[in-house]
Amino acid sequence: MGVSARFGYRAIAEGRRLEPDILERAEHSVSRREIDPDVVKVLYRLIRAGHTAYLVGGGVRDLMLGRRPKDFDVATSAHPQQVRELFRNSRLIGRRFRLVHVFFGPKNIEVATFRRRSEEVSPEEPLIRHDNTFGSAEEDAFRRDFTVNALFYDPQTFRVIDYTGGVPDLRARLIRTVGDPDVRMAEDPVRMMRAVRFAAKLGFEIEPATRAAIERHRTDLLKASIPRLVEETYRTIGQSGAARALLLMEELGLLEQLMPWLSAHLKTWTGPLESSPTVRNLGALGERIAAGETPGHEFVLATMMLDMHLAGAIGREGEGRVDVVGELRRGGFARTDTENMRLIIEAFPLLREPSRRTKRLARRPYFPLARRFFEMVAPVYGADLAALARFLENPDVYLVGAVAPAPSGKRRRRRRGGRRRSRRLAMRPIETAPATPSPGESANGAEPASAQAVPRTRSE
User: Fold this and answer.
1) What value does the mean pLDDT take over residues 150-176?
2) Which of 62, 73, 188, 220 is catalytic?
3) How many structural domains comprise the chain?
4) 35 and 173 in one domain?
5) Residue 248 maps to a domain
6) Up-side HSE of residue 419: CA atoms within 13 Å toward CB?
7) Stretch 331-349: mean pLDDT
């Protein structure tokens, strides 16, 4: 545990006020010019109404790192109903966390009231089930998961406020829990996935005590609600650091809890795990995301499961195969996502080696998505993208050109329906013209059974 976090918990427990570390404007890189103007409007309306309001969480962290935040969150001393009354363009949401979303067209800004750790949590039952206990800014900082996410920016004084030691951890590029890591992981097991996500996203290391706590509590992951686990899985893998996220999940034992069949498949790779096809596929996905693409859930799942499919490990259970679609459905993944994943990975071999079946596939509504997926991961398997492009340009010409030439060097012209005609010829008896009766014929003109004509096949 960091020094600030350790003494902070003690001070709160004893009812003493903790003085935070303050970074003046010249000591940090956060600027109002880099904050969404609508977020600034929300902050100042709350302040003018007499409330304390800060920019909090990942937005401050990313601005401190020189990154462009994906979104901005606001924390305030105003209670949810007070926020709702200040903003007509808002809505109360959430059960576990009572929040307010303030809408500006299609965009919404999340506003949360300062909270403290729930009083319902006990050593015997550490899992947080309700977290609506309002508190101070100081208490709110100490209930957050990681120190780098517990920084506040005050738009009035332009200061960054650090109660938990987040600034030193940002400089050291460390993911560290706020407080005792064993307690924090037991309170909310999804934090283990969040630690992996932030480490992969930011290129940080997980601090040793936090890492050890994750390894000790990995089996608690299945105590979390299924919808939260599914959502966090997509957020962890569906990011630019997808490859490193999967590696960390496997190293820490989290993948074995969530997707044991995928973990078992990775263990069959004899070389460095970084060079395994599955990790390389996720590396290609991360590059697409870094370039601005937003893949769907089925795309993310297909990237994870493709190599298992090509290895023959996916199918009806038995003989070393796993019904991955069924397993994912039982794990809470939506049917639409799992079925579309199946279609995408089953299309890959048809795109790698174009055939008449590929021609039919090109008419399917999911073909553009399957093609994008193929183009992304084809280099991992040495597939020829140019061959698919030639096929799609003129399938019939491509397929004729794929037929082996005749020995003379000239291409044999394929007979349409030849196979069917051969079958008809083979079944049809050969008719012979009437002949003059020979001495061996019977009186009624029929020849002996031994001399009757035998149907001949085409090969005869």
Assistant:
1) 97
2) 73
3) 2
4) yes
5) no
6) 0
7) 97
pTM for this model (two decimals): 0.80
- Domain with 31 in it: what CATH number? 3.30.460.10
Tokens of 22: 């303050």
Among candidate residues 36, 38, 71, 154, the one labeled active-site is 71
Are 20 and 147 in a shared domain?
yes
d(C-alpha 451, C-alpha 163), whole Å? 107
Q: How far is CA 184 from CA 142, 187, 343, 354, in A?
A: 11, 5, 40, 52
Q: Which of 131, 140, 145, 169 is catalytic?
A: 145
The confidence band for 222, taking pLDDT boundaries of 50, 70 and 90, is very high
Q: Which two tokens stand for residue 39?
A: 């977020």
Active site residue 71: yes
Residue 363 tokens, joined: 């008419």
> In the listed set 146, 180, 214, which residue is the last one of a domain according to the structure?
180
Domain ranges, residue 176: 1-180
**Identity of residue 197:** R
Tell me whether residue 180 is one of the annotated catalytic residues. Answer: no
Which domain-ending residue is among 361, 382, 404? Answer: 404
Query: 131 an active-site residue?
Result: no
How much of the chain exceeds pLDDT 90, in percent? 73
Tokens of 283: 């590396």
